[in-house]
Each structure stands twice: as C-alpha cells, then as structure tokens.
Write a structure and sequence with these properties.
Shape: globular
Strand order of the largest sheet: 1-2-7-4
Order of helices and strands: HHEEHHHHEHHHHHHHHHEEEEHEEHEE
Largest sheet: 4 strands, mixed
CATH class of one domain: Mainly Alpha
Cofactor: heme
InterPro entries: Cyt_P450 (IPR001128), Cyt_P450_CS (IPR017972), Cyt_P450_E_grp-I (IPR002401), Cyt_P450_sf (IPR036396), Cytochrome_P450_fam2 (IPR050182)
Number of helices: 17
Protein name: Cytochrome P450
GO molecular function: heme binding; iron ion binding; oxidoreductase activity, acting on paired donors, with incorporation or reduction of molecular oxygen, reduced flavin or flavoprotein as one donor, and incorporation of one atom of oxygen; steroid hydroxylase activity
Keywords: Heme, Iron, Metal-binding, Monooxygenase, Oxidoreductase, Signal
Structural class: alpha+beta
Length: 484
Amino acid sequence: MSVLTFVVIGLLLYWSLKKFMKPRNFPPGPPSIPILGSLPFMPKEAMATGILWQHFKSRYGKVMGMMIGDQPVIGIYDFDLIKEAYSKEEFSARPNSELHDFRMLGKKRGIVMNDGYGWKVHRRFTLKTLKDFGFGNASVEDGILEEANHICDHIAKKNGSPFKAEDVFNVGILNIMWKILTHKRFDLEDPRLANCVRAINGQFSSDRVRIVLAMPWTRHFFPEMSGWNDWKKFAITMQDMTKQILDEHEPCFGPNHEPLDFITAYKEEAKRTGDPEFNDRDLQTTISDIFVASSDTTAHTLSWGLLYMILHPDIQKKVQHEIDDALLGREPTLEDRARLVYTDATLAEIQRRANIVPGALPHRVSKEMKLGGYTIPKDSMVISSLYYVMHDPDYWKNADQFDPTRFIENGKFRKDERFVPFGIGKRICLGDTLARNELFVVFIRLMQRFNFEASPDHPYPKEEYLPSTVMGPKPFHLRAIPRS
C-alpha cells in the first residue's frame, strides 16, 4: 500500500473522528461513533428526550450531551438551567435543517422555526397585530364562544353514539384562528378544514422523519423508509393551501380603513415599511406557523381533558357542580375565571399531566457557550425537558397523580413558575393567552352540556401518549350524554 494511500486513510479517519466525535468538555452522555453518532446507544424512544428524562438524568445528570449523526445535541433536565439558557439571545436560534427549510419554502421564514432579524420582525408584528384584533383579551371571546357552541352542537348530533375526540376538536379550534387570519369561518364539515388538519397532523405525527432530522442525507437514498416522502407530501399540501388562501383573499377594512384580518394587516405593513422581510412567501409560512401553533396543540389538550374527565368522573362532577353554581346555566365569559377556581385548576392540571410538547421545540446555540460548567459548541441543538420540569418528583407532590388541588391555595388559583406548558424564555409560545382562553371557554361549554363517559363498545381508554412532536392521547372512543 502506497504512502499516499496511508495518508488519505489517515486524513479520512482524522476527519471522521473530528466531525462525529464529541468535542472537549462536552456534557456527559451516551457514546458516539462515526456516521451514526450516539444513535446505536439510545433507547428505542430516543428522540422523545423530553419524556425520557429519567433515563438520561439518572445516568448523565442535569445536562446531557450526545451526537446525532454529526449534530451535537444537548438535553437540559433542570428548571434553573433551562431558565438560564433560554433567557439568553445566544440560546434562542433555531436549528439549521433541510427538513424545515423545505416546509418554509427554501429557507428560514415566518415565526416558529425562523431566527435572527426575520424572526424578530415577524414575531413583533404578529403579536401587535393579533393584539389589535383582540387576541389575548376579552374582545375575542365572542368568536371563541361561537366556535365552542358549534363544537357542542356537532357533538350533540351524535346522539350519544361513540366518537373520537380528535375528530371534533381539530377543525373547531382551527376555525377560530382561520377567522382571525382571513375574516371568514367554515362549517366544521368543510373539506378544506379537514385537509388542513390532516396536513398539520401529518407533519407532526411521523416518527420516521426524525431519521432525516438526524441524518439529512438519508432522504436522498431512503426517501420512503426515512419518512421523507410522506412528510414532503403533507408539507406541500400545507403550502398549496396557504397559497390558495392568499390567492382568494380580498382585503378587508373597517370604516376607518383599519385592517380587519391578519392577511390585510400584513400586506399593509409591507407597503408601509418597504421591509423586504414582509413578502408573500414569508406570509405563507407565517400563516402555516400560526395554524400549526394554534390548532394542533389546543385540540390535543382538549382531547386529554376529556380523557382525564372519563378517568376521573368524580373530578368531572366537581367541575360541573362549580360551573352550575357559579353560572346558573348562562354561557361563560373570561371574567368568570376568578369564580371558577377549581375548573381553572383542573385545566392547569390537564396541561401539566398531558404536557403535549414534552421537549419543547429545539433551539440552536448561535455561538460557543458555557452551561452548567460544560462547553456547548456553536450550532448545537438544545432540547429542554418541559416534561421533567412539570413532573419533577422532587418538586411536585405525587407528581404522577391527577390532582387539580395542587393549583389551589386559600381558595384561589395558585400560580407556579414551574407550570410551563407554553415554554420558557425568549421563544415562549406567542399564542399562550389565546390558547388559555380557548381552553377555558370550550371546556366549560363541554362540561355544561354533556357528561362524558367511556364507550362500552370499545376498549376502555388509558393515559397513553401517541408518540409525536405534539403528543395527543392514543385514539380512544367516548360518549357524550346530554345534561338536563
């Protein structure tokens, strides 16, 4: 073998070790090998790092480091360290990913997976505009209540027959945001809403596509096995739908020429500022981001809510009694929250136990940083275990039990800084207030109008997750019995 061959092999080995092995002072974690990184040493549910906090924290401590392919990945299993990290600008970027770039029409756009200047201007504009439309305060509750009643009417038509919760909530919750974005609402059985829900769920529910996230090259060689084909199909469906929305949209103004929907406001902002960040492709992605962030999460939380009411019928009755005594049959308003302490606490406990986004969305470190005494390399992906924060047995008494009273103190709702269903720090969900209001109004109307119970014709439901980025309960059947 020639000297040149030895040199080439040596350089390849050096490059491989440097690229795929852990950097110096990297947090402890599973071993790593070239090409695959730590994947062969991970448990079967490895990508659900949020839920598997017991596996990782017991072995490696509060900060864990691993390699997924050549990508450094950091898992944080400590509330104080998560707060410290996510309060810093350097920990607030999003991962560079061909998968997400495809969804965002070729590069980082919009809000959810964007970062830098583009993210800042779109988040600032979106928060201000949605607030102007009543997003996050009482003026939007009429739309929420209208949709809550449509959901209840839809359930009532089933006449006590078994149904799946997710078949009802997804389109109903999506409709609330659809009206804010376009100034229109659709019938719950409109196929456009159903197609949108399928596209959203498809992007979140594919376990196989995590292979592409870990090793992007697999989409070229194993497009079917890696889940790339299915994921791309759902992404294209969403892109086509948002483009159709923009093509069909007509500007909508009030008597003082104020925009009456988000799309109109966005296009007016583009004219006013001349900022190239405000363009049709970024608007498409922003619409998609808002749909995804506002509908799937709230719908899954409501599904979990009905599951817990079935599993704990005594709590369901106590919630109903409080609502009946306080409201005397009238529809709820957001001002009723202070009078419905046990109901509000029950909703908080549903969110704590379900914890539908257990690892939050991944962050990226924009430059080399220190955390917990370890070196976090530039461009590392960072995952924080919100599941651990809200299930830490050293903090929450009887953490694995469903107990709304943990959020009640001296007859009032008790806020807790470790109750973080919408995230922590600079990237906290911008729709948190709307989501809380939706949950409050829709859940109360459901409790007012129905008693929920398991279907006798189907397996009794269990508290089991459906593995996904946004984790709803495993599909279950239930019955809604009208209350007198």
